Amino acid sequence: MSASQWQQEEQLRRLLSVYLIMGSNNCLKDPMVVLEEAIQGGITMFQYREKGSGALAGDERFSLASRLRGKCREHHIPFIVNDDVDLALALDADGVHVGQEDENASAVRRRIGADRILGVSAYDLPEAEAAIRMGADYLGVGPLYRTQTKEDAKAASGLDVIASMRMQHIRIPIVGIGGIRPDNAEQVIGAGADGVSVITAITHAGDERSATKALSDAVERGLHNR
Ligand code: TZP
Ligand code: MG
């Protein structure tokens, strides 16, 4: 790995610290307000994920994505699109995130080029190894804890899956996902993740700004005590 590749990887680790994922149907109020409050609280990356029952489609989806993208740009927060390369390219997104059931990660890498971030979900070591071969820049590992948010989520894996990936030479940036809250985020980092990605811990918090700050503090403690 060249020095500049190493620097980029280290930068990505920091950007994954507090990663908010959401679509309109995860929000109890205006998604633009939720994003603004989360930015004020200190999120480091944002993913637009419009999925599940009640998800927007068509022009409404494009319009919301485009407004969220604009706010992220204004605040220099990387904007990632879940599972829609066309939308990502249309909005000049900073990256794309795909799950195992989505478009093949190598094909996504070819379409987005080398300069955009590619995130891939991985439940276990074989999925992590395959994702890396296909060009992933970071792995989203989980669900670590029980989650109500993803309708087709697998069983919670617990933190050992991250610890064992780290023991099995998985070095690329990892962000934990699934049921992460301020009170368990520190352990996720302790297990070897670089950051935490959350939906409801922020979108259902009521006070999104304080919830984000609490997550950010927990991640900092985790990194400090590692
Ligand atoms: N992938 C695995 S779990 C999950 C996704 C998208 C949902 C995470 O949502 P929450 O509310 O943070 O548990
Ligand atoms: Mg997906």
From TrEMBL:
- GO MF annotations, alphabetized: magnesium ion binding; thiamine-phosphate diphosphorylase activity
- The Thiamine phosphate synthase/TenI domain sits at 18-202
Protein task: Condenses 4-methyl-5-(beta-hydroxyethyl)thiazole monophosphate (THZ-P) and 2-methyl-4-amino-5-hydroxymethyl pyrimidine pyrophosphate (HMP-PP) to form thiamine monophosphate (TMP).
Kindly provide the name given to this protein in its UniProt entry: Thiamine-phosphate synthase
Q: Which residues bind 2-[(2R,5Z)-2-carboxy-4-methylthiazol-5(2H)-ylidene]ethyl phosphate?
A: 147-149, 179, 199-200
Q: Which reaction does it catalyse?
A: 2-[(2R,5Z)-2-carboxy-4-methylthiazol-5(2H)-ylidene]ethyl phosphate + 4-amino-2-methyl-5-(diphosphooxymethyl)pyrimidine + 2 H(+) = thiamine phosphate + CO2 + diphosphate; 2-(2-carboxy-4-methylthiazol-5-yl)ethyl phosphate + 4-amino-2-methyl-5-(diphosphooxymethyl)pyrimidine + 2 H(+) = thiamine phosphate + CO2 + diphosphate; 4-methyl-5-(2-phosphooxyethyl)-thiazole + 4-amino-2-methyl-5-(diphosphooxymethyl)pyrimidine + H(+) = thiamine phosphate + diphosphate
**Gene Ontology CC: one annotated term:** cytoplasm
Lineage runs:
Bacteria, Bacillati, Bacillota, Bacilli, Bacillales
